[in-house]
Every structure is written in structure tokens, then in C-alpha cells.
Amino acid sequence: MRFVEEFRDPAAAKALLAEIARVADEIGATRAKPVHIMEICGGHTHAIFRYGLDKLVHEGIEFIHGPGCPVCVLPMARVDEAVQIAEQPGVIFTSFGDAMRVPGTRKSLLQAKAEGADIRTVYSPLDALELARRHPEREVVFFGLGFETTTPSTALTIQQAAREAIGNFTIFCNHITVPPPIKVLLDDPHMVLDGFIGPGHVSMVIGTRAYDFIARDYGKPIVVAGFEPTDLLQSVLMVLSQIRDGRAEVENQYARVVPEDGNPRSIAAMDDVYEERPSFAWRGLGEIDASGLRIREKYAAYDAEAKFGIGYGGQRARDVAEPEGTACALVMTGRIKPTGCPMFGTVCNPETPMGALMVSSEGACAAYYQYGGRRSPEAAE
Ligand code: SF4
Question: Is the pTM of this model over 0.85?
Fold first, then answer.
């Protein structure tokens, strides 16, 4: 398959692994004193495990899994509010499949569906809008989730709904942005991060300049990367090369997809429909200033928070405790690996998830479970 196979070429991968090993040795990286590289995006975490890159790279490279899984960082209080909306009479609640099994404090959307709520999986917010056209007697709500990758599609859907003056369609907005949590992690004195692999899809929308502060203010290298094995290996090599050379820059390995300035049409749609919330709660990271988006007043008719009187309860989101014994927050912030959670693969598994990281397609625990196996001597810390 053109534009895919060449990025999975074993010979190219071997050459990159050899070069990574050479540079890692040059900078003195060892198993005992590794270079810590955080892949921000959950899609990268899955690619790393899918292709076994964590086992193939030099032992002095340690991947730290970042908070770039939007379903995983959603506070339980917001899942509860989604269920609350979905259980209203006359509502058709729609969501991407990822969010269906994420546990709330009472139940997940899937459990609410089993109990009779009309909750449907869709592949796009436009599918939800089409449901609203076909069922004018019902109230159709779309669970708007995700980073800058998915935000333009909900913005464009709201603009379309407004053009058609559709009155029975709203979005429950939980969109969040990537740069603020990175800053929180960099400000955390307990985090040891030597460099970053930047998200490919998000950067396709926002460009690469959004990460300038990482290099400029914190002196850390960041390389925006693609999702194929040689993309990731080349990105690791680029991060190591910056460390070796004493540089801290924003580099773009994924230039075939990511323009430096992002996608102006997507950015314009987001700016038209959304504005920053003063703060938003992240599971595992707490309340982060200016890290979430809400629907602007001019599109209030399409805002499920306004229509269903939900509001954003930052304080409430903080007050909802995670289930006892779970280590989701620690995994989310890269402090421990999923296998370090006492529930991993036993109490918590894809059939009976205790945390979103086990069910989201971008969750670190799901990646470990799927590709690293259950709790085993090899998988254990
Ligand atoms: S194994 Fe389950 S409970 Fe533990 S961190 Fe992962 S998702 Fe959370």
C-alpha cells in the first residue's frame, strides 16, 4: 500500500534502531539512567506497543505515556452528566464508540443504554445531525469529545445545523486542548521528562508553533511525529540528536501531513464556534486553566449544557473521587506504567473496566493489555 508500506520497511527500521542505539550510547543513556521521552498522544502509545518499539529501541530509552487520550482524561462527573442527559425522555444521545464503556460513578453510557436510554454509536457528528433531521420530534445530542483533532468537525456540524436552523440538535461539549496539560506536566517537579514526541493529528490542525513554549521556556526538545513505526523511530532519533547537540527545538517529522501553521479553515471554524473556558477538570491532572472549550453564546441553541441546564461544574468535577484502588491518575500522568496498577489485568480488564484507560482505543492500559499481555513477569515492572 503506497505511503504506508514504505513507513513499515524492516530494513529502514533496523537502520534507525542502529542509529538510535549509537546516539543513545553517545549521550550515555542506560537502563539505569534512561532518557525519558513522553509520547503525548494515545495514538502513538498504541503504535509503540503495536509494533513492539518499546522492546526494540535501545534499553536507555524509556517511553513515558502522556495524557493525550481525550476519553481517558474526562472526569467521571462529565460521564455522569452525559448519562443524565441521555436518560431524559425524548433524547437520542449519540457518541463515538470509545466513550460508551467509560465508567461514571453510577453507570456508563452502555449500562444506561441497557436500561432503556436511547443511546447510539455514531462515526461522526454529522451522523448525529442526520438523526436530528430524520427525527424532528426527538432531541438529538452529540457527545463532543476530543482534542483539536475532533473539535473542527463538531464546530463545522454546529455551523451546518445553524445554517439549516435545525432546532433539535445540541452538542455536549467536552473538547479540550493539548498545550495546557503539557505545561502542567513540565511544571511538576516530580516529573522527569527529557523530550517529547508531539501529536500528529492534533498538530495537523494547530500546526507546530503551538509547542514553541516547550523548547523556548523549558529547554526541552519536541518532535511532531507520524504514526508508522519508522515515523516514531525517526522521531526518537531526532529527539536524541537534539539532546546530544544541546539543542531544544520544535521539529516536524510528520511534515508530509502537518503544516507549520496548521489548517486555517479548521482553526477558523473552531474560533467561530468555541471559546476557552476559564478552566476545565482533567482526570488525573485536576483543574487546568484555559484547557477546555465551550460553545459561544451565538450558538447557544446548539449547546446541550444550556438546553439541559447542566452547566459546567468545575468544583463538582473535582469532588467526584475515582474508584478506590485505581491508579488511573498516576498512569495518566506517566508516573507509573499500567502494569504498576494493582488492578491491571485482574479486576480491571476490557470486559470489566475500572478506568477509561482500559477501554479507550487510545488508552495506555488498553495498549498494554492488547499488545503487552496480561499481568505477567514480562509485563510487570
Ligand atoms: S488498569 Fe484500570 S484501574 Fe488501573 S490504571 Fe488502568 S484503567 Fe485505571
Answer: yes
